[in-house]
Design goal:
about 375 residues, alpha/beta, 3 domains, 4-stranded mixed beta sheet, 14 helices, about 15% strand, globular
């Protein structure tokens, strides 16, 4: 007899499908060992006996239905298995049926892709220990400025903030943001470019950012929304997405102008560890202390952005994976003709950085486990 135990692969996938409705088979590795998770899904395509703990009953059914082939394989819940959502949360089934009445889907490829983008970002946040279930989180509101969100990291899928925009809905309904992530002291707009260039909508995303900023102020505190997370298959895609927006749009509507910081997060284990870092209170100062000695830190402001200066060398920390800041750093090196620079990075970032930066810029790898240990993250 199979039960949906919290923390199990089955429970986690049930939780995700209650939010996004469908999930790409090719991204199951986000949830854990890919072979193990795929084997679980394959078993649940056949009829199994389940124990529903919420009402102490038994159920024989298939859990998942799979459609599509290859990279387009799509996972959904079988209609006969929806009762199992009651073991995820008492409100999970109602939330799911509100999105998909009678467990029906449009089959529209753009809608499926949108649900996959939301599902992947939600999965990465969930595995990183961030609360993602909408029915467990306080509802966002626009009635008054008050502290609504909890004191721990939490992720609201885009549906949760779009539904309260009212007259401003037309400004945000076309935004490619898949959610808002809050953490103690800050927030991020969340995008997911997957393995393709994301079409940046320029003025539309600027308006959406302003409206999301209002939601942040009304629910989290008196600070602006200046940062974004950009999930994707690799940093090359993230960089090309940003450079294309720089070339096609006016300066004020470029990706790196709408958001001053754009942190690339890979859809893998490295990205999950990075999320744990990016949601730390006072994260920036903690990273700089870990990477540089006090003597290396600059006193005051320089002519461009850098994090340390020592032995006539300018240093940048890329441990926060801020691609927007990396672009500005490279532009400054070229403009001021600086021939001695170094970037502190993770080993998995070196290939991308070598292809983007000049050969004169040295790389100093910092192992992720060592940094997590320094920051006290398990």
């Amino acid at each position: 007899m199979i039960t949906a135990r919290p923390g199990s692969h089955m429970y986690n996938l049930l939780s995700l499908l209650s939010i996004s409705g469908e999930f790409p088979s090719r991204s199951l590795g986000i949830l854990g060992d890919e072979r193990t998770v795929k084997a679980m899904v394959h078993r649940m395509e056949a009829v199994q006996a389940f124990r529903i703990l919420s009402d102490d009953t038994n159920l024989k059914t298939k859990l998942f239905q799979i459609s599509g082939r290859g990279r387009g394989r799509n996972i959904r819940l079988c209609r006969s298995a929806l009762e199992l959502l009651n073991d995820v949360h008492p409100k999970a089934l109602d939330y799911y049926l509100e999105m998909h009445p009678d467990n029906t889907f449009t089959g529209n490829l753009n809608r499926i892709d949108r649900n996959h983008r939301i599902g992947e970002a939600t999965a990465a946040c969930m595995v990183a220990g961030i609360e993602v279930m909408p029915y467990k989180l306080p509802k966002l509101q626009k009635e008054s400025m008050r502290r609504v969100i909890p004191e721990y990291p939490c992720f609201y899928v885009s549906r949760e903030f779009k539904r309260i925009m009212d007259s401003e809905y037309n400004k945000t309904k076309f935004t490619r943001a898949v959610g808002l992530l809050f953490y103690p002291g800050g927030s991020y707009a969340v995008y997911n470019t997957r393995d393709a260039l994301m079409k940046w909508s320029g003025i539309g995303e600027l308006k959406a950012r302003l409206d999301m900023s209002e939601i942040v102020r009304m629910n989290a505190g008196p600070y602006d929304l200046q940062s974004a997370l950009l999930f994707g298959a690799n940093a090359h895609i993230a960089l090309r997405t940003m450079i294309e927006s720089n070339e096609r749009y006016k300066k004020e509507t470029r990706f790196d102008r709408v958001y001053q910081s754009v942190h690339f997060v890979p859809l893998d284990r490295n990205g999950i560890d990075l999320l744990k870092i990016l949601t730390l209170p006072d994260r920036n100062e903690k990273l700089l202390r870990a990477a540089f000695t006090p003597e290396m830190r600059p006193k005051g402001h320089g002519a461009f952005e850098y994090d340390a200066f020592w032995d006539n060398t300018y240093f940048l920390s890329h441990l926060d994976s801020d691609v927007a800041r990396l672009i500005r750093f490279k532009e400054a090196l070229d403009f001021f003709k600086i021939d001695s620079a170094e970037v502190v990075c993770f080993p998995w970032q070196t290939e991308f950085l070598k292809s983007y930066l000049d050969d004169s810029v040295r790389l100093r790898p910092f192992e992720m486990p060592a940094l997590l240990n320094t920051l006290g993250i398990s």
